[in-house]
Amino acid sequence: MGELIAYAKANAGKVNVGSSGVGSQGHITLELIKKLSGTEMTHVPYRTSAQGNTDIISGQIEGGINYVTVATGPVKEGLMRALAITSKIRSRDLPDVPTLEEAGFPGFESTGWYAVVAPRGTPADVIGKINAIVNAYVVSDRGVRQLNELGMQAAGGTPEDVIAWIRSENERWGPIIKAAGITM
After folding, report:
1. What is the per-residue burial (b if ≥16 Cβ within 10 Å, else e) of 58-89?
2. Would you say residue 142 lies in a domain?
3. What residues in the chain have per-residue pLDDT under 70?
4. pTM
5. Which tens digits make up the pLDDT trace of 121-170?
6. 105 Cβ partners below 8 Å, 6+ apart?
7. Residues 27 and 57 in one domain
8. Beta strands 41-45; 15-19: pairing state
C-alpha cells in the first residue's frame, strides 16, 4: 500500500482505481484514501466489480477497491495482488493481507453492511420479534456458516444499535461524499 501511495504522489492523476460504480462503497473508500494520503487518483466506475477486475488483470487500470468475495479468486490465482483490507480485521479468506490500519492509516475502516428494517409505525412488539429472530440466526451454526460463505461477519444488536450505526455512518461518510461531489 505504501508503494501505491508513493507512486500516486509522484504521478498525480495517473493512477486509475476502479470500483463498482459512482457512489459505491469502493468509490467513497477511494475518496477517503485520497484525502488521508494527500494523493490524486482517478476513480473509474464500473457496473460490476468483476468488470474492474478484468481491467486490473489486463493492465488497463492500476487498481481497484472490491469486495473480498470478488477479489479473492483472482488474488489466489496470482492474477491480482491484494494490498490491504478496509475492515478493522483481516479477512479470513486473505489472512496474509494487512488491514489499511496496519498499512499506515490509523483507525481506518470501511465496510459494506446490511440491516433489517421495517416500515415506520411497525408495532414495537413486532420489531422485537423480528430482532430476536435475526439475532438468533446470526449466532446459529447455520447463520454463521451461511454468512461466512458470503464473506460476511454478523454483528447483531438492538434496533437502537442499528439507528445509532446508520447515524454514525451518515456523519462519517457525508463529508467525504460532499467534498468529492458525489451525486446519484
Report:
1. eeebbbbbbbbebbbebbeeeebebbbbbbee
2. yes
3. none
4. 0.87
5. 999 999 999 999 999 999 999 999 999 888 888 888 999 999 999 999 99
6. 33, 36, 37
7. yes
8. parallel
pLDDT at 82: 96
Shared domain for 21 and 102, answered yes or no, is yes
Taking phi first (over 0 means left), then psi (-120 to 50 degrees means alpha), and beta for anything else, what does residue 47 get? alpha
Q: Which stretches of the chain are DSSP H helices?
A: 2-10, 25-37, 49-57, 68-76, 124-139, 141-149, 159-180
The residue segments making up the domain with residue 157 are 124-170
Give the single-character DSSP code of 106: T
Domain endpoint, select from 90, 111, 132: 111
Instruction: Say what the pLDDT of residue 72 is.
Output: 93
Give the span between the Cα atoms of 87 and 101, in whole angstroms. 9
| pLDDT reported for residue 149 | 85
SS3 28: helix
